[in-house]
Amino acid sequence: MSEETIVRHCSPTLAGLKTANLFGCVFRSKEEMREDLRALNGILRDKGLRILPLRYDAAGGRALLYLYRPAQLARDLRRTESAALLARQGYRHVTGDRALAELACKLRDSEAFPHEIGLFLGYPPEDVQGFLEQRPCKCVGFWKVYGDADKAQRTFARYRRCTACYLEQLRNGKGLAHLAVERH
What we know:
The chain is built from nine helices and five strands. The protein is α+β, with helices and mostly antiparallel strands. It has one domain (3-173). The longest helix has 23 residues, at 149-171. The relative contact order is 0.17.
């Protein structure tokens, strides 16, 4: 997997602006995926980041990868609104790693996509709830917005600027070890 793939899909998380990003990637084998992720985690661990596969399709060689900040995820999921929403979705655990393990099981065991995944990506709980309830949204960007549209638009603009800046820095020779911001 190329550094460009990670930067293109995950710059806001690398920069510490966002809890997590999710993206698909093709691998020749499960072992190649494991080796790539082991190497990436070696680079990113000291920056407070982790990457792991949430789903792997051996037939197509596709993996659904999750790059995240464990400390930020734990804080996000401790929020009253997030914990309550996860409980309503059947989660027995609402702490970071345990809830993430339940999410990974849901992804592996079902073709349906668990829409509460937005909480694991740092989306506002009110927007995740609005999506689950299939209400009319106010705007669409990196996610569908049901709450504060102005704040979301500013966030979307920051994410776009961050990605453009990170891609430029990558083209100028800076790698992931330099681009990932340390946050714990």
